[in-house]
Structures are given as structure tokens and as C-alpha cells.
Amino acid sequence: MSPILFVCAALAGGIGAGLRYLVDLLVARLVGTRYPWGVLVINLTGSFALGLVTGGFPAAVLIVGAGLLGGYTTFSTAMLDTVALRRDGASRAAAFNAVGMLLLGLLAAGAGLALGAALAR
User: Is the pLDDT of residue 45 over 80?
Assistant: First the structure.
């Protein structure tokens, strides 16, 4: 990988992390913090976007996929939220967070991939 691509991917990752913070903050203000809706929105939109880029714009996968969306999405926070929900006695919410995010993420990524492939035709 060229140094310029590496720097661009790193900068895009920083932008993605900043976007993640802003989206999480916005969602929390709109619907509250009783459930980690912000992380769900972030991971689903990120899964869709990565599918879209991969399916339709493969040349952008390094910077947009690994960089921007790698900084934007957050598996570790989703898993920490799941453990915290379970610890706080919200077993159903914890189960939805773990299993629901996985299944919905797969659907979002598949939809993005299909749309990207259709756009690339």
C-alpha cells in the first residue's frame, strides 16, 4: 500500500470515529439512553454502507471501507453494551442487542451489497 493511501485511510478513520460520536449523541438526544440505540444505528448504517461500497465501488474499499467505516462502526462498544444490559438485569434487551444487531447487520450489509452491485451495472 502506498504511504498516501495509508494516510488517507487513517484520516478517514479519524473522521469516521468523529461521525460515530456525533451520531451516537444525536440518537441519544432523540430517543434517550435506556437502550444503546445509537450504537445499533451506527452499526447498521455502517454495515449497509460497507456493503454498498464493496458491491458498487470496490476501488473505494480501502479508504471508505477500512478507513471511514472502520472508524465509524463499533463492534466492541456493541458487545460492552450487551454485557452492561445483562449486568443491569435487562436480559431481553441484551439478547436483542447481541443477536438482533448481528442479524440486522447481516441484512443491512446484504442490502447494501445488492444495491451497490445494481448501481455498478
Answer: yes
Q: Is residue 14 pLDDT above 80, yes or no?
A: yes
State pTM to two decimals. 0.94
Count the residues in the chain: 121
Question: Which among 113, 1, 107 has a CA at the least distance from the CA of 57?
Answer: 113
115 touches 52 (CB < 8 A): yes
Asked if residue 120 is part of any domain, the answer here is no
In a domain, 23, yes or no: yes
- The reply to whether 119 falls in a domain is no
Distance CA 110, CA 120 (A): 15
Which residue range forms the structural domain that includes residue 37? Answer: 3-113
Q: Is 89 left (phi over 0), alpha (psi -120 to 50) or beta?
A: left
Is 93 a domain residue? yes
